[in-house]
Design goal:
Blueprint lengths: L21 E13 L4 E7 L2 E7 L1 H4 L1 H8 L5 E10 L14 E10 L18 H6 L1 H4 L3 H22 L4 E2 L17 E3 L7 E3 L5 H9 L4 E9 L11 E10 L3 H18 L10 E3 H8 L13 E2 L10 H7 L4 E9 L6 H5 L1 H7 L6 E5 L5 E2 L8 H11 L5 E9 H18 L9 E5 L4 E4 L4 E4 L26 E6 L2 E8 L4 H10 L4 H14 L7 E7 H8 L30 H6 L6
Parallel strand pairs: 3-5, 6-9, 11-17
Antiparallel strand pairs: 1-2, 1-4, 2-3, 4-5, 7-8, 9-10, 10-22, 12-13, 13-16, 14-15, 14-16, 17-20, 18-19, 20-21, 21-22
Helix pairs in contact: 5-7, 5-16, 8-13, 14-15
Length: 588
């Protein structure tokens, strides 16, 4: 029974056990059906749907009012719960056994005709949905998504609170400290010419909280990054941010598994623990990505040695060059595709960095079709069949060249072929990817870049090679992978000021620049900083996967488009000359 509300029950609450009850319902008119002597209204709120029937002999004047109402009018109805007539029950509806026989109605407001029908399972242009988002949110699927997000977020908070984590709110206006993406900057009116930055994450602040003795911190944190957008990325996003001190890597990962398991269970998802762990190198070599979806096979096969003496020059060169490899995947079932369809895969591979795509199609009739098969002898073909478990109807796709690039190309092709072949992906897939390299080489900047972030603790045994061989240095890092997405990531932090400065210099900072950007952190690390490690869970992304959606826009109330626009409010928009003058800015 509801309290502090105009209604006694929600529209998804009533059951056969409520027969005879006098009830008051409020909601929006979803459908109205006039059957001559009777009027039926499907009344909808965030909890569901109830059928309300209006009989002129019972409803009196309310019947005439019911004749006037239209879709999306908010109304209040009074009536008695009764069983639906025999043969009229709706087994697909939670309230499908009953209806409310109306005795009264009050129109609370009227509505213009909506820009689209407030229904699920209809083909709607997304821009239209975002322009009229407040109407889109009325659809049952969107209401369910927001409730799912709320329930999961609450469960995360409870699980962390129950384990002695302290929720601490960190500033939204802070210093610009580039962490891999562009900052959103905010001009200061009180200090002309100076700027705040919106936080890309609370990373540095949570490390300072560890120095400050908080020991176990969490926050459901709003973060901002001015970067190119896609289906699972927005300029503002939410992460469940976590940090612990006086711990090692296994302590952090163990605590996270407990918290995540409890939170997923709250929304009906079982996460078996302990989670599998793949090293970064294992993930790349086996799946071609550091965020593999292991619900389907199509693993990468290393066939470098098999083609060491090949007459195919591309393969022979890769097989006999240090740092290069020949790898392939077996797309079972695609060998029956038409030649023209297979040839189009070359453009797909180019999008992943390939110059071209070598392939061999093993037809159902036992024949072999391929532009390169003429270069291979019977022995090589038999070895390939054995290595890749080739059967009639299979399509083997190859990449050759620099080892990591080869893995990445085939990792992209693996995902593409899984979609093209509509491979089943049942349930959810959880695992850790651990032991990332500390840095990688950025060809565009011609400099080293942090693989995770600049504050990651290197493997202790590798620190002596920081200057001589940085690419060989490992790190204490761990990514939480869910259904082929990086759903969260973290690592142990540097807690020594001298080591932190060495790493910043490796990444291209001068000492002066490092102190300008990160001086407050370097100073804090000199005051007894404890060993610390943490994690950030991408809340939007996880909720997207739990909802079975294709975009995080489906689990955010008011998202932006891929161009960063809010179509509902027309943001971003121009501001007045007066506003610019107040912060000493001028448009050029």
């Amino acid at each position: 029974m509801s309290t502090f509300s105009l209604h006694t029950h929600t529209c998804g609450e009533l059951r056969a056990s409520d027969l005879g009850a006098n009830v008051v319902l409020t909601g929006w008119v979803w459908h109205r059906r006039d059957h001559g002597g009777l009027i039926f209204i499907d009344l909808r709120d965030r909890e569901g749907l109830t059928q309300v029937s209006f009989d002129p002999d019972v409803a009196g004047d309310a019947f005439h009012t019911a004749e006037t109402v239209r879709p999306e009018w908010p109304i209040k109805v009074e009536g008695v719960v009764r069983l639906r007539p025999e043969g009229m029950a709706n087994p697909n509806l939670a309230t499908g056994d009953i209806e409310v026989l109306a005795t009264g109605i009050e129109v609370l407001n009227k509505s213009k005709t909506p820009a689209f029908q407030i229904e699920d399972k209809i083909d709607l242009n997304e821009d239209l949905r975002l322009r009229w988002r407040y109407l889109d949110l009325r659809r049952p699927s969107m209401a369910a998504n927001l409730r799912l997000r709320s329930d999961f977020t609450f469960a995360m908070r409870k699980a962390l609170h129950d384990r002695a984590f302290t929720e601490v709110e960190t500033p939204a206006l802070f210093k610009s400290t580039p962490e891999g993406a562009r900052d959103f900057i905010v001009p200061s009116r009180l200090q002309p010419g100076n700027f705040y930055a919106l936080p890309q994450s609370p990373q540095l602040l949570k490390q300072l909280l560890m120095v400050g003795g908080v020991e176990r911190y969490y926050q459901v944190a709003k973060c901002f990054r001015d970067e190119d957008l896609r289906a699972d990325r927005q300029p503002e996003f939410t992460q469940v941010d976590i940090e612990m001190s006086f711990v090692d890597q296994d302590d952090v990962m163990g605590a996270l598994e407990d918290v995540l398991k409890e939170a997923f269970a709250s929304v009906g998802v079982d996460m078996p623990t302990p989670l599998r762990r793949l090293t970064y190198r294992e993930a790349m070599e086996t799946y071609g990505t550091d965020k593999p979806d292991t619900r389907y096979g199509m693993r990468l096969h290393d066939v470098t040695k098999l083609f060491a003496n090949s007459k195919f020059k591309v393969f022979a060169t890769a097989a006999n060059t240090d740092g290069q490899a020949i790898k392939c995947i077996n797309a079972k079932g695609a060998g029956s595709w038409a030649r023209s369809k297979i040839d189009k895969l070359s453009k797909v591979a180019q999008a992943f960095g390939a110059k071209g795509l070598a392939w061999i199609a093993f037809r159902e009739d036992g024949s072999v079709n391929s532009p390169i098969v003429k270069f291979f002898g019977d022995e090589e073909m038999e070895a390939l069949r054995a290595a890749c478990d080739v059967e009639p109807g299979d399509l083997v796709l190859f990449a050759a060249g620099e080892r990591m690039q080869t893995c990445e190309i085939l990792g992209g092709m693996r995902c593409h072929m899984a979609d093209a072949l509509e491979l089943p992906r049942e349930g959810h897939d959880f695992l850790w990817v651990v032991d990332f390299p500390l840095v990688h080489w950025d060809d565009e900047r011609k400099a080293y870049a942090a693989e995770h972030q600049p504050f990651t603790q290197p493997e202790e045994a590798d620190i002596e090679r920081l200057d001589s061989d940085p690419l060989s240095v490992g790190s204490h890092t761990y990514d939480f992978v869910m259904d082929g997405y990086e759903a969260g990531g973290g690592g142990m932090r540097v807690h020594n000021a001298d080591l932190q400065m060495r790493i910043l210099k490796l990444l291209g900072f001068t000492e002066e620049a490092a102190r300008e950007q990160f001086g407050f952190l370097l100073e804090a690390l000199e005051y007894g900083a404890p060993p610390m490690g943490g994690f950030a869970l991408g809340l939007d992304r996880v909720c997207m996967l739990l909802a079975g959606a294709d975009s995080i826009r489906e689990v955010k109330a008011f998202p932006k488009t891929t161009n960063g626009n809010d179509l509902m409010s027309s943001a971003p928009s121009a501001v007045s000359e007066r506003q610019l003058k107040e912060v000493d800015l001028r448009l050029l």
